[in-house]
Amino acid sequence: MSIRTTILLVLATLLVASITSCAPKQPAGANTAGPAPAAVAPESTGITTPNGEAGGETALVTYADAAQGFSIAYPGNWTLVPGSTAGVQFAGGDDSMKLEFAQLPAGKDAMAYAKADVVALSAAYPGFQQVGLAASTEVKNAIVLGFEAKGFSRITGKPVLLRADRYYMPLSSGRIAVLTMVTANNRYDREGVRDIALSFKLLK
Fold first, then answer.
1. Is the separation of the CB atoms in 102 and 87 below 8 Å?
2. What distance in Å separates the CA atoms of residue 22 and residue 25, rounded to the nearest whole number?
3. Is there a contact between 38 and 44 (Cβ–Cβ < 8 Å)?
4. What is the rounded distance in angstroms from the CA atom of residue 126 to the CA atom of residue 148?
5. pLDDT (tens digit, 9 = 90+) per residue, 51-103?
6. Whole-number Cα distances in Å, 25 to 17, 33, 42, 158
7. CATH superfamily of 60-202
């Protein structure tokens, strides 16, 4: 082999090595057949109620009032509304419950009291619409009034359709306990309201 040929071979080898060293390197295991697919963020699976609170059932806890002589359950994430002197009131977001005590008028039973109460409620709740009034088959001796009304969310300020159940529970000595549960219509839970009504007990 001539000296000229040898020099040409050496130059060709150096050129190939130079080109190879300048090529971009692929990471180990990379797919060289095409570009890698873009990353996709996982979709959220969280469920929230319309008022922004976490979904799912909330455990009930018991409130006992020795001075007034009663106990009742309420959703554990609700708070006590101060100021009730004849009963108790709790609120959570746009939802609320109120327990009151009253004296039955002479000669009137729980059904008559409830029918008369409809007049007062229609004045107190804008857009009041009665959706039911009947004796409860689950809460002993109780009368249940169901109604809808128009309101505004305390959280968003937007109009909201309210749904309420009002339990009239006759007591001894001519008294009556009245339990009112109000929620946004799209969160109405009849069984949940019933469970709270069933939890009501007199302590003395």
1. no
2. 9
3. no
4. 9
5. 333 345 689 999 999 999 999 999 999 999 998 888 999 999 999 999 999 99
6. 14, 14, 31, 58
7. Mog1/PsbP, alpha/beta/alpha sandwich (3.40.1000.10)
Secondary structure (3-state) at 30: coil
Ordered by start, the domain boundaries in the chain are: 60-202
Q: Which of 125, 202, 204 is nearest to 169 (CA)?
A: 202
How crowded is residue 188: how many other Cβ atoms within 10 Å of its Cβ?
Answer: 19
- How many whole angstroms separate alpha carbon 44 and alpha carbon 10? 62
What pLDDT is recorded for position 60? Answer: 95
User: What distance in Å separates the CA atoms of residue 193 and residue 144, rounded to the nearest whole number?
Assistant: 11
Nearest to 143, CA basis, from 74, 197, 68: 197
In terms of residues, how long is the chain? 204
For tokens 């009368």, name the residue: 143
For 179, phi then psi, to 5°, come to -110, 125
How far is it between the farthest Cα atoms of the chain?
132
